[in-house]
Please model this.
Amino acid sequence: MAKTKSTFVCQSCGAVLVRWVGRCPECNEWNSVVEEQVIESGTHVRPAMKDGAAPTPITDRSQPAPNRQGTALTELDRVLGGGIVPGSLILIGGDPGIGKSTLMLQISHCVAEAAGPVLYVSGEESFDQTRMRASRLGTLSDRLLIYTETSLDSVRNQIKKDDYALVVVDSIQSMYTPDLAAVPGSVSQVRDCANEFLRLAKGSSVPVFLVGHVTKDGSIAGPRLLEHLVDTVLYFEGEGKQALRILRAVKNRFGSTNEIGVFEMTEAGLREVPNPSALFLSERPKGVSGSVVIPSVEGTRPLLVEVQALVGDTPLASPRRTVAGINPNRVALILAVLEKRAGAHIADKDVFVNVAGGVKLDEPAADLAVAVALMSSLLELPVASDIAIFGEVGLAGEIRAVDMARARVAEASKFGFSRCILPKSCAADVREGDIEIVPVNTVSQAIDVALDR
Ligand SMILES: Nc1ncnc2c1ncn2[C@@H]1O[C@H](COP(=O)(O)OP(=O)(O)OP(=O)(O)O)[C@@H](O)[C@H]1O
Ligand SMILES: [Mg+2]
Model:
């Protein structure tokens, strides 16, 4: 019988400690240290990634550069930086029921049809459950092999046995190795299994997708170490009961992390939304104060998004400031600028700001749209529905240039907007076509034009 030993592991940073402490000395997180049992044996030593690997000159061309494997889902390919890189380890996290397994089945089907057999390791759901889902999604394929297994050793042997085009592990928390006495899903099990999949991916050049659960605070369950270990970390997000799903790369060794993929959840699975601007604007109220459209940019793609503000008298001693979809500090800064530079009396009002459709805006180009939305609601004056607005607001009330002005204006023009309020310094970059360009220098000027004062 193998001897086990107690170790203490931080769930947040993965630090291994000799005794339990209330606060991890490595990452200073409270209550993150848990006790785990580990088998004391020499079996825990893992072999190298590739047998007989030797130092190789970086200019060596004897091995051709691998080609990315495209999937039929262009939204996904863009987030990955142009397709799946052979031998990459990709972690995909998301809330329960958001559609991780659905997305994985759809990807598996695409790759199985295009490139070869795909091993779908299902550690959480039975074969029948997975098959039922696959037939609902229309992703039945002879080359899609479902393997209901949770033992790391069996999965490793299976991967080595055949030449797979892709391996999906759903989920990493359900895998376990008997080398550790800890239960599946514990920090050491998750870390060890992920390490083994890293070795398998790099050693065999098969791309591996790991599905990861998300904890209450929104990070992927298990040590943060997991995010360092993998090549790409994707988050699959969605708002409450809405059908909209956004796939976001938070780390990518093979591409930009600014790109997003937009999907809609339907009965037949995830449907790509190649034109999210139309979707985001579809429910926009016309002639109502506090609503402004901003041509924002996510990665390389312009996206029209509606910013909504509601400013009202407060019954409370300290007025509420509730913000969703945008940095609250940025909104506080804009409120201060409006108070000081545009003569607005807003400090004693309740302020609510929301970005419609559950989109997150984190670029300064959204400042001016937020400022105008706030003033529109405060003064009860609607912004004309054919105006789009973007620009960064400075502390002196000046409007500063932002990048990709031309792409923003083009997107607004494509969706039938006939006027665009933008920073004066950007006006020279923009080609005037069907859309009227209104360059502004100050936030007051923008408010006057937008609210037709
Ligand atoms: N018949 C259906 N019609 C429409 N949508 C459905 C249907 N069945 C399931 N769904 C959607 O699929 C979602 C579940 O997807 P899936 O099982 O892929 O999620 P998951 O992220 O893998 O969940 P878990 O964390 O439990 O593994 C449901 O929340 C629902 O939105
Ligand atoms: Mg699932």
About this structure: The pocket of adenosine-5'-triphosphate (ligand 1) is lined by residues 94, 96-102, 265, 267 (CB under 6 Å).
